[in-house]
Specification:
679 residues, alpha/beta, Rossmann fold, 3 domains, globular
Length: 679
């Protein structure tokens, strides 16, 4: 893409700065404090549309210019944002129909973010004109090191709009997808069911909520999946149009967008193709709620996997967050250990949100580095420590990246299909199943990537597909080659049930994966709906582990081993987990859902046989590594708990933060960090 590659791999600290929210007389103080703490970048302007264009067609960049000049005088460069996420009142007044429409027909009223319909022509014209003005003015400005397009596309459930304009655009999209042949749509969606056969694309409606049902219940599954795809592509096209404008004005521009942990309404693998570097927003306090354990490594691996390269964290938790209710305040040292988790998992730039806690607006209680008063406190002191340590590590960690022999496969189509038809009361969503797999791997210190179904899997020894609910023949054949060449594949429940049209396959489940899995599914029982029912699965060792949600009753084919059987209901003694040796490798099929402890027990012997077992870590301890191009490993040992812990080092080496030689065990203080350059 012609961008400045050197800007992507530097270790740097940043903060968002809302120059429009603070008086000019304060800017100098903030710039000095930032420079002293090691901040070298500020993110600006993502919500400044009303400042940059106070009335239609009247642009004023004077305050942004002044802020950029002041920060540059302190050697602080700018990540410049396009402010399309929040439009000004004058645009709303000119286009009263600019609102998104929810699936229940309600308008998304003005006043938050992402209120506008991405297919509204007036909104798009205004956005692209402003972006063109900004790109022309700042496209070759050396103070601008990167561009962030928009802010958190799809946040607050805004990836899908159900307005008349989106309905027209969806019909046009369908016409293109089915080559202007309505019979192909009818065949793909099976519209003979319930007399839904269409005569023309103009007869297709967006999947609004039926009057007698909640959400999408009762809608055609093919319609639902294609509308999810269309909505995802709508957001990606909106971003891509802005990126194209910027690249024309600035061919070497570094372009990013801040993605969101736990949001899957947009296919991030497709969106990432439009970016030079993936950025994302990381708020571990939403997950932990005071628990003393390592935050999930899955979102780190997921974001890094979008482009198979290191990432930026564009919003990293500093203080407690909240709009109406506040999260628990991270104790001193927590911000630091969260930073080192991001660094260990492949983040080169970390931007702490926010610089100063806002006095106005809905984010008044989303605490930043500085409190409302602007007087530096404990978090500022912690930031200074992080800055000092980052500078000490920068040369050693240059061009290092996590390297993994294991991968978790995440498929957006499968996620959407199970979102619309979850089948059980709990536990069957692709994100939750992937998160459980991640917990098992990271809990044993096994580094892993997250990849799309079309990714190259040949570099891995282990691929876990927690639920490949939608699986094409092509993906199945690729996975067969992977296993035949010596790989280990772990397939989760409900795999291979549907094709790319969200239609159930005609083959016995798991469909195109049956030959590889070495089993078929006789029947499935969603026992979570049976009052008082609990299910356990018995392993070959005699141990029993709990199962959740659904039981696929497996029929092993000749030569396939049953590793576990059900204990309960009418299928007691039937296979729940199978292992099929296929070529030089093997495929493990899980017919039910396990918690992390149960899944770990099931996988341990199989992984250990292939040198992937790792070792069990205390819940509060995290171990991960970055590797240099020359093969040197830098191992991070993180204690997320409040008690001092002592663990064995994986290899001897030099601890870079203290200069100590490590030959055996490492003592980690509460919220302690060690970074070992291994010999």
């Amino acid at each position: 893409m012609g961008h400045n590659e050197s800007e992507l791999s530097k270790l740097r600290l940043a903060v968002p700065y809302y120059f429009e929210q603070w008086p000019r007389k304060r800017w100098e103080t903030d710039a000095k404090l930032m420079a002293e703490a090691g901040i070298t970048l500020v993110r600006m302007a993502e919500f400044a549309w009303s400042v940059l264009e106070p009335s239609r067609g009247k642009y004023d960049f004077s305050r942004l210019d002044e802020a950029m000049r002041l920060f540059a005088s302190h050697n602080i460069a700018t990540i410049l944002c396009t402010p399309s996420a929040a439009y000004p009142p004058w645009l709303h007044a000119k286009h009263p129909d600019i609102h998104q429409v929810r699936s229940n027909g309600l308008l998304k009223e003005y006043g938050m973010r992402q209120d506008a319909c991405k297919n509204h022509p007036g909104y798009r014209r205004a956005v692209m004109k402003l972006v063109r003005m900004m790109a022309t003015r700042y496209g070759r400005d050396e103070r601008v090191k990167a561009w962030q397009i928009d802010n958190e596309l799809g946040c607050h459930g805004t990836a899908r709009c159900f307005c008349p304009r989106c309905e027209s655009a969806f019909r046009a999209w369908l016409a293109g997808r089915f080559e202007h042949n309505i019979n192909r749509l009818n065949s793909a969606w099976g519209t003979a069911f319930w007399s839904q056969e269409y005569r023309a694309f103009q007869e297709v409606s967006v999947p609004r909520e039926p009057a007698d049902r909640m959400g999408k219940q009762g809608q055609n599954p093919g319609l639902l999946l294609d509308f999810a795809r269309f909505s995802s592509e709508t957001n990606i096209r909106f971003l891509a149009e802005q990126a194209s404008i910027i690249r024309k004005a600035s061919p070497r521009a570094v372009i990013t967008h801040n993605l969101m942990k736990g949001h899957f309404d947009i296919d991030y693998f497709c969106l990432a193709q439009e970016l030079d570097v993936v950025s994302w927003d990381n708020y571990p306090f939403f997950e932990l709620q005071g628990e003393e354990r390592a935050p999930s490594a899955f979102p780190h691996a997921f974001m890094r996997g979008l482009k198979q390269r290191n990432v930026w964290v564009m919003e990293q938790a500093a203080g407690p967050g909240g709009w109406d209710y506040m999260q628990p305040t991270p104790e001193p040292g927590r911000m630091r250990v969260w930073y080192f988790q991001a660094l260990a998992r492949g983040a080169d730039l970390v931007c702490f949100f926010r610089w100063r806690t806002a006095r106005f607006g809905i984010e008044q209680y989303w605490h930043g580095i500085l409190p409302h008063s602007g007087i530096p406190g404990s978090r500022y002191g912690e930031l200074r420590q992080i800055g000092t340590e980052m500078r000490a590590l920068a040369a050693e960690l240059k061009e290092t990246t996590p390297e993994a022999r294991a991968a978790i496969l995440f498929d957006h189509d499968s996620h959407w299909s199970l979102e619309f038809q979850p089948q059980a009361k709990e536990a069957l969503g692709v994100p939750s199943l992937a998160g459980c797999a991640a917990q098992v791997l990271s809990g044993r210190g096994v580094d892993f990537d997250c990849i799309a179904p079309n990714a190259d899997v040949s570099r891995y020894a282990l691929v876990m597909a927690p639920s490949l609910h939608i699986c094409s023949r092509e993906v199945a054949q690729k996975l067969e080659r992977f296993v035949a060449d010596g790989g280990l594949l772990v397939l989760g429940p409900l795999s291979g049930m549907k094709d790319s049209k969200n239609a159930v396959v005609e083959e016995p489940f798991p469909g195109f994966l049956s030959r590889l899995a070495g089993c078929t599914v006789e029947e499935a029982d969603v026992f979570s709906f049976v009052p008082g029912c609990t299910m356990r699965v018995k392993l070959l060792t005699g141990a029993a582990v709990p199962a959740q949600a659904v039981a696929e009753i497996l029929a092993p084919l000749t030569g396939t081993l049953a590793l576990a059987t059900y204990c309960g209901r009418y299928y007691s003694g039937k296979a729940a987990v199978t292992l099929n040796h296929f070529g030089k490798g093997a495929c493990l099929y899980l017919g039910t859902v396990f918690d992390a402890a149960g899944l770990s027990e099931i996988l341990l012997s199989v992984l250990s046989d292939r040198g992937l077992g790792g070792r069990a870590l205390p819940a509060a301890v995290e171990v991960a590594a970055r590797t240099s191009p020359s093969g040197t490993s830098f191992r991070f040992y993180l204690n997320h708990g409040s008690q001092t812990l002592r663990i064995d080092a994986l290899a001897p080496g030099l601890e870079l933060l203290t200069g100590r030689n490590i030959t055996g065990a490492i003592t980690l203080d509460a919220l302690g960090v060690a970074v070992v350059k291994e010999r």
